[in-house]
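Hi everyone,

Forwarding the result from last night's run.
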Amino acid sequence: MNRSRSTHVTEGKLCTALLAILFCVPALALAQTHAIRTKSGLVSGVALSHGQEVFKGIPFAAPPVGKLRWQPPQAPAAWQGVRKADSFGAPCMQSKSPERLGPWTRVFLSKMQPSEDCLYLNVWTTAKRPKTLLPVMVWIYGGGFTSGAGSVEIYDGAALARKGVVVVSANYRVGVFGFFAYPGLTAESPHHSSGNYGLLDQIAALQWVQRNITAFGGDPRQVTIFGQSAGAGSVWLLMQSPLARGLFERAIIMSGPAVIPAKMITGERSLAAAEKQGQEVASRLGAQLIDQLRALPAERIIKDSGRARWAPIEDGWVIRAGWHPEHEVTVINGMVAEDIGIGYYGNGPAPDVTLKDYHKTMRETCEAKASECEKLYPAGDDLQAAAAIRSALQDRARVSLYKWGVQQTSLSPQVYTYYFNQKIPWPQHPEYGVFHSSELPYVFDNLALMDRPWQPSDWRAAREMYSYWTDFAKTGNPNGKGLPEWPLFRVGNFTTMQLAARMGPIPLAPAAREQFWMEYLKAPLGF
């Protein structure tokens, strides 16, 4: 079993002395690193074991405060001397995370005090000299575009970096501070745009990587962006944004477009609709002029902005309306088994689903073909209802993923798809299943952060998962020595790669169900 891990604290308990020796030493800060010169000044991080270094809290843009609130990110100020990059920057302004949210325990949630001064990034590297030219992986976190941070514990990049890549994670503005559109903001913009500040932050971080990553041993010509949930939606939007052209070569979309409907990712918002929402929020805040809105305390804006839906906007500048991929990049796109449970099971225990709920869901999912759906996914009583709904939505998502692949092959030199189906062992909560974001401990090889009865199959799945991800970053192909073969997506091959205790291709769905969804879905979900 691979038990070299990147932290010295398990979830909910401190490491004992013995555990510190066996599990925890790899992430202990050993010494300050030598100084590295960025375009803004010198930085020093901390040395970790296994020859790693981590640099935390490097500013990639000026603090978006005062007159820079609701402005595109500006260049960071230069500094004199050596800046210590030994602690994470504050998460961007958001409501404070609870101690636990359904299956998402503290390792999945931000623990630091949020601030508007938040545009910082982190770098993990094993390179000992500049221009080593290791592949670069830039992580974009999820959180529904309303929460999240690069400092979230499960995103620790040390284990990935040990596989010979440079890992970068960056904060971006979320919620009302990241996606607030308003007529006054649109009017002051030379691009006649407002509201996509969070995406512009992501682009600014990628531009920082292009300018600075060689100093950390990274290759700016080999950048892979990867993200989950809202981060996956961000990856998909960056693939379409003309502003991100040339900033990355490969992309990994984890539980995003093609699997989750667009309205759950982006809200399908036009600039006009977003501006209308912004006016409603401004009215609640009792301020109309931009200067007045910028002068309000951030905490009050968070509190009084109500239940508005914050998400990226089709503004014509950062994002154009419709499906317009700009970049011919190699792509992995996939899903987690319970992604389809968002709204049903993904945010907590499965509710008591009744036959009435079953019939309602089938009408919503299959519309005029609801009766045919019910024949394909029968339920004779309440006990069968939840399983039938789950099967229908999982089959639909896998077929949608295939349809997405058919479209993407015309734009990408290589496409790979997957279905993650490894259940985190949690005897106290079997109801959570393979919940949304449960692949993250495996992808980052951070199982040791969670106090779970891990089995040899879990350690093996993690080893294979992070190897697939890092091999893809290195070559554009997830396959590598000792790994089960992951087939390239092919039109007419109705399978996807299952990532689980047993890795390998599986059918999209049983034949009759597959045919139904192939005919029913006119376009992939999330388009």
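Residues 382-408 form the longest helix (27 residues).

Cheers,
N.
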